[in-house]
Amino acid sequence: MPLLAPDIGIDLGTCNFRLSVKGKGIVIYEPTIAVVRNNAKREILAIGIDAQVLLGRTSEETLTIRPLVDSVIADFDMTELMLRYFIRKGIGGGFLSRPRMVITVPCGLTDVERRAVNEAARVAGARSVHIVDQPFAAAIGTGLPVYDPMGSMLVNIGGGITEAALISLNGVVVSRSIRVAGNKMDEAIVNYVKRVYNMLISDRTAEALKMDLGSAIQPADPIKAMVRGRDLLTGLPMTVELDSVQIHDALREPLAAVVGAVRWVLERTPPELAVDVLRTGIYLTGGSAQLTGIDVLIASELGIPVLIANEASDCAAQGVGYLAENIEMIARIGKGDPLTE
To answer: Distance (Å, rounded) from C-alpha 302 to C-alpha 296?
Structure first.
């Protein structure tokens, strides 16, 4: 029987949960969602990928829960149960000690919200918990020189939150967190279809439209698709044709907010570090960074080179996994008070 449980890294996202185990890499990549029985006990019926299959197909006797809203714990008990489930699934049982955990959180979280993450992890079975800012972990996963005295700028666009951060010499120097990311883009598409066609579509349909037709820049050759939903006037199923130009129009507002967050950080970047950013460019990570043309949009608006990281959606998980492999390096992370909003 092994004595010590392996150290683990957790990227605790609004939409997806990623768990990295020391010596194995990322072993869990599942939706942060649960389906429970709709009663006082809230008996769990499915978690993660099993729950995603049931999304939108449940009866009144069941309830779909996302325990994190905009990367903040909204349901403590469900978050703790989900952590416990994924940890056991990732490393198994039979250890005489509990694992040490490294967990990513947004820069913009308050001390109270950070303590909630710490407490949930400890109740779920952590021996010790190390909280790391998500952009810092993503920068490590991207391969940026986070421990060197030079400025690296990274924009992490996830499901619930977008974070623009300037990183230098072991820590975050300036950061901006906004609760506009992939989910708000999906919501914008739902609202557009509702406003233009009086048709209601699901969040999953909106996400598919975003990935298939969505573009941050005006499409040169529009792509069309047939979309099914419910007529809000008659209540009957209906079908309409949408094209990529319409989806681009629907995404204008959330994309403008993302560009605004990046601009806010650049305006507050010290001159010496701004020179580094001009030379090396801005790196995009997170699942929503894969939206077509988002790098071109930010570069054209700000006049700075923009690059999308390799395996952008996994950068934070890879970074926190690296810290779990080399947990002594966490002590080197800066302890100052960065400029945040």
So the answer is: 10
- Amino acid 334: pLDDT: 55
- Residue 3 maps to a domain: no
**Does residue 71 sit in the same domain as residue 53?**
yes
pTM of the model: 0.90
pLDDT at residue 337 in the model: 37
- What is the structure's pLDDT at 171? 87
CA dist., res. 80 & res. 37, Å (int): 17
Q: What is the CATH number of the domain that holds 153?
A: 3.30.420.40
For helices 294-302 and 252-267, angle between their N-to-C axes, nearest 10 degrees:
50
- Cβ neighbours around 171 below 10 Å, total: 18
The answer to the question of residue 285 being in a domain is: yes
Whether the predicted pLDDT of 38 surpasses 90: no
Q: What are 63's two structure tokens? A: 């309830």
In a domain, residue 337? The reply is: no
**Are 199 and 266 in the same domain?**
no
pLDDT at 1 over 60: no
Residues 216 and 200 sit within 8 Å (Cβ to Cβ): no
Within-domain flag for 44: yes
Contact yes or no for 192/250 (Cβ under 8 A): yes
pLDDT of residue 70: 83
Structural domain range at position 43: 8-136+318-332
